[in-house]
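User: I'm curious whether this sequence folds into something compact or stays loose and floppy. Could you predict its structure so I can see for myself?
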Amino acid sequence: MSASPGAGGASIYREAIGVPRWFTFLILGGMGFVGFIVGLESTRNSLAGFERVMFYAFMLLALLVQGFVALNFLSLSVSVSSDSVQFAYGMFKRRFKWSQVTSYSVQRYDWKRYGGWGLRFGPHGRRAWSVPGVGEGVAFQVEEKGQSREYFVSSRKPAEFAQAVAAAWGHVAKQENGDPGRA
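Assistant: Here's the prediction. I'll summarize afterward.
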């Protein structure tokens, strides 16, 4: 946990959670397999015309999808600041101001509750930003667009993550109550 002054959205806690190596190898292996198939087909030259165009278009699409996954889902970043909590898988980010958070708790991750691992949209408004192999994290109840939603965020250091949330959330609560004390 890195400590910073608690003013103006300064970072109180940051964590980057990489996916397991097997997932990285799976993505890279898939990209290598596509390259192998393209190379094999180019030496065999068994396709002609429209079939050849469709083959290369499909292989290009497969590489683009795998590249997109590699760029966006190999690391989950989490940060807590004096005014919000933010978590992101690449370009997919969520940020909540403390005024939106109604509760939080350290929990074990239940993949059945959210429908798997990764960026998940489960039943009853549940959302998960989970990393395979990381069994714990912090669950938040958030008021979002007039609805209460549950967000689970994986963490390798859930106690430190929750401690930072408590410090930042407490700081905001004291500010709202007119108490200028530090969190």
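Summary: Strands lie at 11-18, 75-81, 84-89, 92-97, 101-108, 119-121, 126-129, 136-144, 147-154. The CA atoms of residues 37 and 148 lie 48 Å apart.
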